[in-house]
């Protein structure tokens, strides 16, 4: 088990973070160790192999809008599209940075 800033990661791909249950999904199109952490509340983040949250996101219920921010900018931006399109967009951005 690994603890990351009020986060408990078990071996069953479930995270309990600040009383929110999330699921871990491996990002197969990036190098090993990148994971999407998806909350049951419609938010999540991209976790780097080093254990850092790189991108946070919030799904806006009832729309195709997603608010997101890269941790190094702290500015929230808007993405219009599906969750799958958003994740493809973010993966491309991360690939450009690494």
Report what the structure shows.
The chain has 98 residues and is an alpha+beta fold. It has one domain (2-97). Helices cover 15% and strands 45% of the residues. It is built from one helix and nine strands. It has a nine-stranded antiparallel sheet. A hairpin with a 2-residue loop joins strand 3 (14-17) and strand 4. The chain is globular, with a radius of gyration of 13 Å. The N and C termini lie far apart (27 Å).
What are the defining features of this structure?
45% strand; 98 residues; nine-stranded antiparallel beta sheet; globular; single chain; 9 strands; alpha+beta
The spatial strand order of the largest sheet comes to 1-2-3-4-5-6-7-8-9
Distance between the termini: 27 Å
Counting DSSP H or I runs of 4 or more residues, the number of helices is: 1
Q: Report on the biggest sheet.
A: 9 strands, antiparallel
In round numbers, the mean pLDDT is 81
Order of helices and strands: EEEEEEEEEH
Report the helical percentage: 10-25%
SSE topology:
Blueprint: E1 2-3, E2 7-9, E3 14-17, E4 20-26, E5 35-39, E6 43-47, E7 53-60, E8 65-70, E9 77-80, H1 83-97
Short description:
With 98 residues, this protein is of the alpha+beta class. Helix content is 15%, strand content 45%.
